[in-house]
Amino acid sequence: MRTSKDATRYFDCAFDILASEGFGGLKLAALCRRLGVTTGAFYHHFPSWGAFSHRCLDHWHEEATTRLATLARSEPDPLDQLEILVSATLTLPHRAEAAIRAWSTVDPVVGRLQEDVDRERRTVAFEAFRALVGDDEDAGRFADLGMYILIGFQQAESIGDPQSLEWALRMLKRAATEVSTQRALPD
What we know:
DNA-binding, Tetracycline Repressor, domain 2, mainly alpha, Transcriptional regulator, 9 helices
C-alpha cells in the first residue's frame, strides 16, 4: 500500500509519541498537538482513530519488516543478506517497537500484527543463516538467537546502547560464519 507524505508525517509523529510516552500516550489530542493540526485535519486524512492506528501499524510492518526482508532476499550472498539485516536492525525505532510490543499484550489485533512481524523477521534471518550454515536446525537456533538479541535489547533499552546491540549482532554473524567455515573443511 502506498502511503502519502501527509499520512507518513502522522505515522512518524505517532512513532515519536510511542517512543517517548509509550502506547498509553498515543492519543488523538497528543498527536494533533505535536503536529500542530486540528482534529478536523486529522479526520481529513483518516476516517477514525482505529483506521489511523491500523494504517500506522501496517506502515510500520511494511517499512520496518517487509521492505527490509525483500531487500535482504534480493542479495544472493548470505553474508550480504546478514549484513543488510544487521544494518536494518540497528536503525529500527527500538523504543517505539518496545511500546508496540507492550501494546500487543493488551490489544489482540496489535498482538497478531506483532506475531506476524516477529515471524517474518525470524523467517528472513533463518533463510540467510540456512544459506550460510547449510543446516536447518543450526539456522533456526541462529535465527532465534537473533530475535532474542533484538527483543531483549528493545525491552531493556534503558540499560543498553546501540553499540552493544551492534556488537551482539556482529558476534552472532561471526559465530554463524565460523560454523559455515568448519562445515566446509574436509574431514
